[in-house]
Amino acid sequence: MLETIVKISDWIWGPPMIILLFLSGIFLTFRLGFFHIKHAGYIFKQTVGGIFKKQDPLAKAEGTISPFQALTSALACTIGAGNIVGVPVAIMLGGPGAIFWMWVIALLAGCIKFSEVVLAVKYREKNAKGEYVGGPMYYITKGLNMKWLGVWFAAALMFEVAASNMVQANSLALSVKETFNINPAITGIIAMILVGAVIIGGIKRIGSFTEKFVPIMVFIYLAGAFIIVISNINMIGEVFGLIFTYAFKPMAAVGGFGGAVIAQAIRHGFARGVYSNEAGVGTAPIAHATATTDHPVRQGLWGLAEVVIDTLVVCTATAFVILSTGVWKAEGAGNDPSALTSVAFAEGLGTVGGYIVTVSLLFFVVSTVIVLSFYGEKQAEFLFGHKAVWVVKVIYVLSIFVGAIGGARVMWSLLDISLAAMAIPNIIALLLLSKEVVRLKNEYFSSPEFYLKDIGKGK
């Protein structure tokens, strides 16, 4: 049974998903006219570069949480086990070339994520508590009038949250055991308590939590990675060589690495890249749909920034640490790739390095599971009404403990299957509604109320 799950996962993330995501990314990038490259400077100023800029009090903005809180909530979900554990898993199963394909999907993912966020804000609505709710299940139902496809997405996401919670908890438990030799069951219980205490408070408490902790944990992790890479500066050329060379040719077994063909590099690079930045699978738009904004495109720009921060910055930092320290070639490395980042940080920074990874992973995992659980709750609300939310909250909290004591390989495979089940209906919707995304993009960049005003040529 377990081998069957792994085989199904490997097949789905072979040609079917690679072709779907690759062609969809190219189509949306061309249809939107490469605007994210043309306006790269403006997009940076409006997002990361304008974090501390005060909101215009006269702007006609509506929403439940701030745009920055929406970004950090979405990043809290995307920056997690995928960045710290998923990257070494991709390297050990697909070779260093998998990182190149992770970059490729990230570059194409920008317009996919932008389209998701724009549609989520466009078709959002208020729930019984007066909070804004949105996401694929709403733009599929309202924009396409295809409720059956929205139900498909919502059911797939409810399952994916449980699978992802287990993967996240398993990654944390392995890292804690590696660093502190603490029983995974104990780690699972502590994580359950932390997550349960926050998700009871809803999206406002989640937004407040992520706004404070996500920037801190990202900074600490990147600082540690930067120190290790600089200390191995003589390896940078070799690292780039490994990534680019083995993206296009098979790599033979060496040390603890079992070898990989090109198809494995592409498969694992794409799968881990998608799990990392979540472009196309429809989760992040659920958080962005709650943001206070005056136009769907303005919030969509934050989605673009999210992909850059998550995959091109954090995942790349992890990859360079793994490859520059050489831990991926050590004997036995392939037996437990999930713990490789902890090993690499300990190699580069000593005992404190292992602590940095474990503490970072603790914050990453807890914040990811908190936001993921919120996403799952919104699906339960969409499918069964507000009363069903408490049932899924209990299920998601319990899945943390199950994951902490479970097996990693089969959980990653279950996660990949559920991600594909979410991506298919979502990508269909993005392609069918792309005309509306283009219309909103053109409206924003030609209006004296938005882009032209921002650059000093509007009202």
Structure description:
With 459 residues, the protein is mostly helical. The chain has a single domain (2-454), classed as Amino acid/polyamine transporter I (Up-down Bundle). 75% of the residues lie in helices and 1% in strands. The chain contains 22 helices and 2 strands. It has helices spanning 2-12, 15-31, 35-38, 40-46, 67-78, 81-84, 86-94, 97-122, 136-144, 147-180, 184-199, 202-231, 236-245, 262-277, 284-288, 296-325, 340-349, 351-384, 389-404, 408-432, 434-446, 451-454; strands at residues 125-126, 132-133. The protein has a two-stranded antiparallel sheet with strand order 1-2. The longest helix has 34 residues, at 147-180. The termini are far apart. The model has no long low-confidence stretch (mean pLDDT 82). GO terms for molecular function: amino acid:sodium symporter activity.
Features:
459 residues; mainly alpha; Amino acid/polyamine transporter I; two-stranded antiparallel ribbon; 2 strands; 75% helix; 1% strand; symport; amino acid:sodium symporter activity; transport; AGCS family alanine or glycine:cation symporter
Poorly predicted spans: none
Specify the CATH architecture: Up-down Bundle
Helix content range: over 70%
Please state the CA-atom Rg, rounded to the nearest Å.
21 Å
**How many individual domains?**
1
Question: Would you state the CATH class?
Answer: Mainly Alpha
The count of DSSP E runs of length 2 or more, i.e. the number of strands, is 2
Largest sheet, described in full?
2 strands, antiparallel
CATH topology: Amino acid/polyamine transporter I
